[in-house]
Design goal:
23 helices; transport; mainly alpha; single chain; about 450 residues; 2 domains
């Protein structure tokens, strides 16, 4: 006879997992192992409550199966990023973005350029490691304080990371909420665009205050020259990006569209970059290596390919399996029951979802932990109150993705601080897009704006 999982048992499993995740992060061990070990911690509780090993193993495999579409899309995204870089598509976007740079509009241009790069590639890490690095150097040459530039870079990078259908966090949020990735984008679009407008105005005002004088544009010219030297820069590079975006807007399935985009990248690499067919195709798996002696160019050329997504694929597999196991043995229900007592309207529902997402990053030290756990914990309440799952996926990503870079010991916090050369607490006050999204999501929750209801909800 099966016994109901108690709140204490749920806290032991989740607390044990979060402790393992924290220890892994602090010791440099991959968080994958914390998730894998947590499987057996949960199984021990499940066994005590009367579940057979076969039942729990089936729950793990079913959880993974339910999220398999996200894994396939991630691999396709890796191929697309790899071929778009080697095909000169991403470098061309950066090049033409740099052409609009002027001291007074530098911060706004940084926000826009990083947003475009992030939407085109679907990765905040890739954006920060490519165009973000360039903008930090340019900002330094223009006399803009590094923390402010970093804030503009991260605002643009996270805008695309949570909005682009190519983003792993976007795909994972949709998968864990059990909705299509395009439906997730539609759900988060009102918050994202409103927050982007607020952030753009704020950085424009600050930019005119800081960059009104003349500045040395030498570094801008050197970066542009390096891009021209290593890539054939062309306006035709915008064609694949527009094709992919249009097809996705037309509700075409994500996997074939993204894969088709990767194919266009291969064609662009052969036609415009002079790559042999074998080299162009190989970039869909692993990016070409080049040692130009220019750090920005070397960093740019080394990114992308399916191989670069294997880290994310592994953690998603482990996370999906863990989520399926938590659901089967009743841990999700035990936690949710306690949280649900304090939720009585759309506003409190939004606030608690964002808090749960933030705690997942804070205690789990990784964005993926939050994106896996938050929808699992909160989904039943959204269904009970009649809210669409797209509202759940939106709030889960705002609480998980947008707060990950604020935590010094999280995967995002460590990466961003290291790459940008600015401490987390120094750039934190300028993460204006994140703060705007959180505030707007809560306002929408209490006012009912863009809080879609299910068709059969009362």
């Amino acid at each position: 006879m099966k016994r109901q999982t108690t709140l204490l048992q749920a806290v032991i499993v989740l607390g044990g997992f979060l402790a393992l995740a924290f220890l892994c992060n602090q010791s440099g061990i991959e968080i994958h192992l914390a998730l894998f070990a947590a499987w057996f911690l949960a199984m021990a509780v499940g066994k005590r409550n009367g579940f057979s090993y076969q039942e729990m193993e089936h729950a793990v495999t079913k959880g993974i199966y339910d999220g398999m579409s996200a894994i396939l899309i991630l691999l396709a995204v890796g191929a697309l990023v790899g071929t778009w870089i080697s095909g000169g598509i991403v470098p061309s976007l950066i090049y033409y973005g740099l052409k609009v740079i002027h001291p007074s509009i530098f911060l706004l241009a940084t926000l826009i350029l990083c947003s475009i790069t992030s939407i085109a590639t679907g990765t905040s890490w890739g954006t920060v490691g490519t165009s973000g690095i360039a903008m930090m150097g340019i900002g330094s040459a223009l006399g803009i304080p590094a923390p402010i530039t970093a804030g503009a870079v991260l605002s643009g990078a996270y805008f695309g990371d949570k909005l682009s259908p190519l983003s792993d966090s976007c795909v994972l949020s949709a998968a864990m909420a059990d909705i299509d990735v395009i439906d997730h984008v539609r759900g988060i679009l009102p918050v994202s665009l409103s927050a982007f407008g607020i952030t753009g105005i704020a950085f424009t005002v600050l930019g005119f205050r800081l960059g009104g004088g003349s500045a040395d544009m030498t570094q801008v010219n050197s970066v542009m020259a390096a891009l021209q030297e290593n890539f054939h820069i062309s306006l035709f590079a915008f064609v694949p990006m527009l094709v992919v975006i249009i097809l996705l807007i037309l509700k075409m399935p994500s996997l074939p569209v993204i894969s088709f985009g990767a194919g266009l990248g291969i064609v662009w690499g052969i036609i415009f970059q002079g790559l042999t067919p074998v080299k162009a195709i190989s970039t869909a798996w692993v990016q070409l290596e080049m040692n130009t002696g220019i750090e920005f160019i070397d960093s740019l050329l080394s990114r992308g390919g399916m191989n670069s997504m294997l880290w994310s694929v592994a953690i998603i597999i482990l996370g999906l399996g863990f989520g399926g196991l938590l659901d089967r043995i009743g841990i999700i229900k035990a936690i949710a029951g306690k949280v649900y007592q304090h939720i009585n309207n759309g506003g409190t529902l939004t606030v608690f979802t964002i808090i749960v997402g933030f705690l997942g990053c804070l205690l789990g030290s990784a964005m993926y932990v939050s994106l896996v756990l938050t929808p699992k914990i909160m989904a039943e309440k959204y269904d009970e109150m009649g809210y669409s799952r797209r509202v759940l996926s939106r709030n889960a990503e705002i609480g998980g993705t947008l707060t990950a870079g604020m935590i010094p010991w999280s995967d995002n916090g460590i990466y961003m601080a290291t790459i940008l050369g600015v401490a987390t607490f120094e750039y934190l006050p300028y993460m204006w897009l994140s703060f705007s999204c959180i505030a707007l999501a809560i306002i929408f929750g209490f006012t009912g704006l863009f809080m879609w209801k299910n068709k059969n909800a009362v």
